[in-house]
Amino acid sequence: MNMIVKKFPTTAFIDGEWISSAKTFAVTDPATGAEVAAVPDLGAEDARRAIDAASRALPDWSAKTAKERAAILRRWFDLVTAETDSLAQLMTTEQGKPIAEARAEVAYGASFIEWFAEEGKRAYGRTIPTTAASKRYITIKQPIGVVAAIAPWNFPVAMITRKVAPALASGCTIVVKPAAETPLCALALAKLAADAGLPPGVLNIVTTTDAPAIGKVFCEDARVRKLSFTGSTEVGKILYRQCADTVKKLTLELGGNAPLLVFDDADLDQAVAGAMASKYRTAGQTCVCANRILVQSGIYDRFAAAMVERVNDLAVGPGLETGNAVGPLISGEAIDKVETLVADAVKKGAKVLTGGEVAPAGPLFYRPSVVGDVTSDMSIVREEIFGPVAALVRFETEADAIALANDTPFGLAAYLFSRDVSRAWRVAEKLDAGMVGINEGIFSNEVVPFGGVKESGLGREGGAEGLEEYLEVKYICLGAIDA
Q: Which DSSP string do the residues of 276-296 spell out, in sequence order?
């Protein structure tokens, strides 16, 4: 076990205690395949214990003032920020992303703690003009209750804090199941939260390889009033169905198939830079990566050549080594999927302009790639690639671009590049997506809402909207005013 892993806990966290188990599972470094820690492999009964703890802690935590909760969250933010380098190294060790990206993610994750610490003080109700002289109408907002959260492996700090911070700020308690691939960052965050003064039971971390069993407990337990899940659409639909019997509130941040539209009038350098930022971050393993790059015919050849030039400059290798821009994919299955999608595209007439193969750095490293002459009948534009492969699709007219962009059941993110303000505004309104970046390849931050439409999910995380997901509105009618 390396020194960074030793610095933080490797046991589960329930009711303020670090929980071991006879059954464990290995956390491995995807860059090397080496085991870096053994973590408790908990089961359904442990999940119920965590919900018990969250239920016991709820009355006292929800009774605290927003300012009292904010003070604890602020201390948590300060501790996370102070441990940026350690958390970044821990993240790269278990997830693989380049260390510079990991540091940026720690800052991004911490920003949600800071934002919601303050936003929790603004859970305003309202007074409503009366319809009768003897009555007064008021609404207040109260915490929804115990929350369960299921987080993904690609952003092991930020996807935890984006769920936990608003839950805690609103007065909820929470049980978190981190991804089996990346549980160490979640446990480190829990330790820092406890060090900040978070009471026992308010935040609980259940580590497991049996996600279906834990998810079923979360869905079926009536004490859990809200479920927040980030992951695949397939799993999201299962959880959606399982939550029906207890009618839980849901936030589902599911799969994407993001189009990136480049019009003839775009600034070429700006468009290429935006596409690079969107496509190759975290080795293409993000739900908002540009999955399909739609380029108008008049600029297509120049754009493709510029992309190839930029992509060939990307260094591939272990994330802890300075200078590497693209780290490993998370698993052998991820490599297999990318290889299958590229092979299908080539078989149907696409051309690999650069890359298109596993990189020399190791079995989980794939060369950053650009595939040209992609058409809509290829799987690479129908499925989420989740790898460092840019698929270029040619289009002729604005109407064609919009039709191609919207030809998917998903609607999380979309991007467009144009110097024509009228066109940019017009197209942005017509894109079926919860988020649109205009002349920008990265648009996420803590003060804006993150989420999708269609089969990309329900609800929003971040921004003022993210706090509302953890609150219930209560209407109070005060009568007999004139008695």
A: HHHHHGGGG-STTSEEEEEEE
